[in-house]
Design a protein that fits this description.
Elements (H helix, E strand, L loop, with lengths): L1 E4 L2 E4 L7 E3 L6 E4 L15 E2 L6 E6 L6 E6 L5 E6 L12 E2 L3 E6 L2 E3 L1 H5 L6 E3 L5 E7 L8 E5 L3 E11 L2 E9 L16 E8 L6 E8 L3 E5 L11 E8 L6 E9 L5 E4 L11 E4 L7 E4 L3
Length: 294
């Protein structure tokens, strides 16, 4: 993905450090590690708090520390770093923030060093016995403050958005029953659903519930980023066609999370839309333009 922060346009991938891109001609400036502040990796999906302008991000890695959380101020200076203790090098593709919280989901897709050394095409394997869990900590807080809740094994690449509702943290996301099970490809990993997770934080222990919004196969969600970490009404996702061999994108779906109404745009046979990006053109949430390419 790409993010503009601290006067720099950065691109990031699954693991490794981000690249700075020249905004005038899109040429590569080079790798950046935030003045030696990042020692492991940079997430594919950083989050910018619309109130403070701080960028929250993390990196997962193949050796300890497996998970590290960072905060960069609006100038791009890293002002906070916390190592989050986890037991294995799991594939944590994204995370979420609210105005008060950082939300991690650690799912049982685990890096296998032996497969990597042997030159395997995908060194990540499904290990359901490792379990799955949600971690919630204060935004910009200490790793010692994180609270975990065990959930049934599943996998999540992307979230639409997250927000606080009293003592509850609400996360809308794309949830899979499994991922890479038995060597399956992305396209062959089934059980995809658009779901709402509700994590109760008011008691001694976290509580968890899931509401399935749609079982249609959708991915690459987007929202109005002026409402990142705040209650949202609108989300846009890419439809996926069934294909065991690859990820087959189709059209774009709009979900109204307040009314439950779902509507879709189909680009036509053999056409493929990609991840939508919302550009505001008005004050209200969802008032603007949706950009994609086909």
């Amino acid at each position: 993905s790409a993010v503009y922060h601290g006067g720099k346009l950065l691109t990031s991938g699954e693991v490794g450090l981000p690249f700075e891109i020249n905004v005038s001609d899109l040429s590569t400036v080079g790798v950046t590690n935030f003045d030696d502040s990042i020692q492991t990796s940079f997430t594919a999906h950083p989050k910018i708090d619309p109130l403070t302008g701080n960028m929250h991000f993390f990196g997962y890695w193949f050796v300890n520390p497996y998970l590290t959380y960072h905060v960069a101020d609006p100038t791009g200076k890293v002002i906070h770093t916390e190592v989050i203790p986890v037991d294995k090098p799991t594939m944590i593709h994204s995370f979420a923030i609210t105005e008060q919280d950082v939300v991690f989901w650690e799912c049982p897709v685990v890096f296998d060093l032996q497969i990597a050394v042997a030159g395997g095409s995908n060194p990540f394997v499904w290990q359901p016995d490792y379990g799955a869990r949600i971690g919630i900590m204060p935004l910009g807080g200490s790793a010692s403050q994180i609270r975990w809740k065990e959930i049934d094994p599943c996998y999540v690449f992307h979230e639409v958005n997250a927000f606080r509702q009293g003592d509850d943290v609400i996360v809308d996301l794309c949830r899979y029953d499994s991922m890479f099970q038995g060597g399956a490809s992305l396209g062959g990993s089934g059980g995809n659903a658009l779901a709402r997770w509700t994590i109760g934080t008011g008691g001694t222990d976290l509580t968890f519930s899931e509401q399935v919004i749609s079982r249609a196969s959708m991915e690459l969600p987007s929202h109005d980023r002026r409402f990142s970490g705040r209650k949202h009404q609108h989300g846009w996702l890419v439809n996926m066609r069934d294909n065991d061999d690859t990820v087959d994108f189709a059209g774009i779906t709009h979900v109204n999370f307040d009314s439950g109404k779902i509507s879709a745009w189909d680009p036509g046979l053999n056409n493929h839309a990609n991840e939508p990006f919302f550009v505001p053109d008005g004050e209200a949430e969802g008032e603007g333009w949706l950009l994609s390419y086909v």
